[in-house]
């Protein structure tokens, strides 16, 4: 399991939001995108795929051999690409994407879980377990 996970629940349908593209970034001078994922049928990100070709950036956030094995402190941001999810269901949305920004302290805990409760016109989040 990666050190940062997320889970999306579609509150309008009362079910997980599957196949939502998610990007994760870390704040250096600006936000640097370093991995991508899609939610599975349970609405969860099971694995992040490295997107950065900058090996130094990947190593700085804890990637080794294309696996996210440890976590560095810092400010992270997950972008949930919600527009396509709703368009595939013939729905509209007010939020084409949702950015959730959070800080991992030093020293970091072993795991951070970011749930997203989502509807066409609103969302809520919290630090999960």
Automatic annotation (TrEMBL):
<protein>
    <recommendedName>
        <fullName>5-hydroxyisourate hydrolase</fullName>
        <ecNumber>3.5.2.17</ecNumber>
    </recommendedName>
</protein>
<comment type="similarity">
    <text>Belongs to the transthyretin family. 5-hydroxyisourate hydrolase subfamily.</text>
</comment>
<dbReference type="GO" id="GO:0033971">
    <property type="term" value="F:hydroxyisourate hydrolase activity"/>
</dbReference>
<keyword id="KW-0378">Hydrolase</keyword>
<feature type="domain" description="Transthyretin/hydroxyisourate hydrolase">
    <location>
        <begin position="4"/>
        <end position="128"/>
    </location>
</feature>
<comment type="function">
    <text>Catalyzes the hydrolysis of 5-hydroxyisourate (HIU) to 2-oxo-4-hydroxy-4-carboxy-5-ureidoimidazoline (OHCU).</text>
</comment>
<dbReference type="InterPro" id="IPR014306">
    <property type="entry name" value="Hydroxyisourate_hydrolase"/>
</dbReference>
<comment type="subunit">
    <text>Homotetramer.</text>
</comment>
<dbReference type="Pfam" id="PF00576">
    <property type="entry name" value="Transthyretin"/>
</dbReference>
<dbReference type="InterPro" id="IPR023416">
    <property type="entry name" value="Transthyretin/HIU_hydrolase_d"/>
</dbReference>
<dbReference type="GO" id="GO:0006144">
    <property type="term" value="P:purine nucleobase metabolic process"/>
</dbReference>
<dbReference type="InterPro" id="IPR036817">
    <property type="entry name" value="Transthyretin/HIU_hydrolase_sf"/>
</dbReference>
<keyword id="KW-0659">Purine metabolism</keyword>
């Amino acid at each position: 399991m990666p050190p940062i996970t997320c889970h999306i629940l579609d509150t309008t349908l009362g079910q997980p939001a599957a196949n939502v593209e998610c990007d994760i970034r870390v704040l250096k001078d600006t936000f640097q995108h370093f991995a991508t994922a899609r939610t599975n049928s349970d609405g969860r990100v099971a694995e992040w795929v490295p997107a950065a070709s900058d090996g130094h950036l990947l190593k700085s956030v804890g990637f080794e051999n294309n696996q996210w094995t440890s976590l560095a402190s810092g400010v992270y941001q997950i972008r949930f690409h919600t527009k396509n999810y709703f368009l595939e269901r013939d729905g509209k949305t007010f939020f084409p994407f949702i950015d959730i920004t959070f800080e991992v302290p030093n020293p970091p805990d072993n795991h951070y879980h970011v749930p997203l409760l989502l509807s066409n016109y609103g969302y809520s989040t919290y630090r999960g377990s």
